[in-house]
Amino acid sequence: MSHANTPTPRRFQPGAPLTGRIAVPGDKSISHRSLMFGALAVGRTTAKGLLEGEDVMATAAALRAMGAAIVRSDDGTWIIDGVGVGGLLQPETALEMGNSGTSTRLLMGLVASHGVTATFTGDASLSKRPMGRVTEPLSLMGADFTSSPGGRLPLTMRGAHPAVPIEYRLPVASAQVKSAVLIAGLNTPGVTRVIEPVATRDHTERMLTGFGADLSVEEIDGTRIIDIRGEAELKPQDIIVPGDPSSAAFFVVAALLVPGSDLIVANVGLNPTRAALFDVLRAMGGSIEELDRRDVGGEPVADLRVRHSELSGIEVDPAVAPAMIDEFPVLFVAASLARGRTVTTGLDELRVKESDRLAAMAEALTLAGANIEEREDGLVIEGTGGEPLRGTSGERVTTHLDHRIAMSMAVAGLASRDGVEIDDTSPIATSFPTFEALLAQALAA
Ligand SMILES: O=C(O)C1=C[C@@H](OP(=O)(O)O)[C@@H](O)[C@H](O)C1
Ligand SMILES: C=C(OP(=O)(O)O)C(=O)O
């Protein structure tokens, strides 16, 4: 991807409060799935509000390479002409996944039960991430893999046709692993079962049900048992993608931290498997009001009114981690300015995201003057009690090709005395290409 070759440094300065109204772009998880399920349906699916970030575009390109017709019409609606479950074609070249773990792992599930061979490649960040978590269950279903040492990209896989249905208990709380197995189950005879001891985002289950798949979820003592009956026929859908709570998070925290802010962040998806950050910030004393709660495309959505607030430190219950897994970097920024100590635990998964997010945020926030202790499975943060962070002078924060580190430290810069300089803003385009423009809008309103 181009961003790997052209680092774009930038200094984020303190200044005006965040005011007015901004609307965040479409949810990344739902956008990937809209394209994938549309590509497997028989007929034409449309998606409005699709996130046009690099990660989602990598999914679109891979699906085109396997036979789906995917175009953006002039009014911004995406049109997907599906090939039907079982109808994927052999891609002629390697599938370039860029920075996107979701594209890679979910598409591996899709290939696993089709009789095609595909090679997956990625950027330097993605090539370090573990793929064994999906190759293991997909091998049990009959797919065959040749990967780089440690189950990393580049990786070549041969799908099995017919694949074998399995019952798989997730060893890690991962919606990507769950989804890979369920998607493989779509073209597998019989019933594929995923047992999920800790609930993770449930977009795959909700959306596949909407597309007409025979999928059931039973919950017993907090454990979810998800069954999907294969050789499904998916019916095309007209999808409206709600706004991404993970993108909204940066603006919500910025408005809480910068004095004088009073910002409306519109169109925020509040699926309970995604929205824990907002509850944690409220428990810290944050003023976050839900306006006009409504339903968009089967997901709860609201506009959030966020006002500058004095925050207090908190012990974050590790049980809520899956429902805010991508939001910890920006929570660490909020905690750095809170009164007292914030303790986070149970966050081992953060070490295998686009970067090791515990190490990267500990390093970045320390450079900006915060008081951070890095532990094996979380950070302990002594907040300033509302005093701005010092900021960075002379040195640049390293973002490690990680969009969420870049945006979190941009927020830290707004809440600092001297500003924060980050080494590369280009990874932001993977999930939130309009971030800098919306920030300029909220600062100028
Ligand atoms: O299924 C998804 O769309 C995602 C699942 C999460 O990953 P894990 O399954 O690795 O936790 C999350 O971090 C990622 O941004 C998107
Ligand atoms: C972890 C993330 O994405 P992915 O796994 O798709 O690269 C993220 O967006 O924070």
TrEMBL record:
Pathway: Metabolic intermediate biosynthesis; chorismate biosynthesis; chorismate from D-erythrose 4-phosphate and phosphoenolpyruvate: step 6/7. Pfam families: EPSP_synthase (PF00275). GO terms for biological process: amino acid biosynthetic process; aromatic amino acid family biosynthetic process; chorismate biosynthetic process. GO terms for cellular component: cytoplasm. Its EC number is 2.5.1.19. The keyword Transferase applies. NCBIfam families: aroA. This is 3-phosphoshikimate 1-carboxyvinyltransferase. It comes from Croceicoccus pelagius. The gene is aroA.
